[in-house]
Amino acid sequence: MKIVKNIALILLAVFVIAQFFSPEKNEGDIASVDAFLAETNPPENVKKILVESCYDCHSNVTKYPWYNTITPVNFWLADHVKDGKKHLNFSDWSAYSLKKKEHKMDELYEEVEKGEMPLDSYTWTHTEANLSPEQIEELVAWGKSVQAKYQQQLNAN
């Protein structure tokens, strides 16, 4: 029993010490998505969906929940956000080529349409990010229209 107690104390000590270490936060300026919004011109209902369901993982601005202060959860969240931004970052939209923008819009509405986005692991704790069938339809319609504009521009070049 003494070994179990010692192991528990060591694990507790490691957990407490780990709380002094945390990853860099993704706390940029919300203005970083302005170029994306200006170029794609989403209607207000779609803007709301983007804010509630997309920006935390796909922009340079994350609103962190209270449990982000707990290590190792904060490292898991940081990795999750890093991976999301690797696939699509609305804050870097102006740096994307026209072809990449067209492709990203295609991926955006396809992932939402298939129910792949937002991730279940996100919506479990962010219930406001759950999309209704109507919201999915609105987002997909907007995404298809934006993608079509990019395709026209690509075909004109």
Provide the fold topology.
Layout: H1 2-18, H2 34-40, H3 44-53, H4 55-58, H5 73-87, H6 98-113, H7 120-123, H8 133-156
Task: Kindly describe this structure.
By secondary structure, the protein is an all-alpha fold. The chain has one domain. It is 62% helix and 0% strand. α6 packs antiparallel against α8. The longest helix is centred in the last third of the chain and has 24 residues.
Give a quick precis of the structure:
The protein has 157 residues and is an all-alpha fold.
Give, in order, the helices and strands: HHHHHHHH
Radius of gyration: 20 Å
The structural domain count equals 1
- Fraction of helical residues: 55-70%
Structural class based on helices, strands and sheet pairing: mainly alpha
Shape: elongated
What is the tally of beta strands? 0
Query: Uncertain runs with pLDDT below 50, 5 residues or more?
Result: none
Instruction: Please outline the major beta sheet.
Output: none
How many helices? The count is 8
What labels describe this entry?
mainly alpha, 157 residues, 8 helices
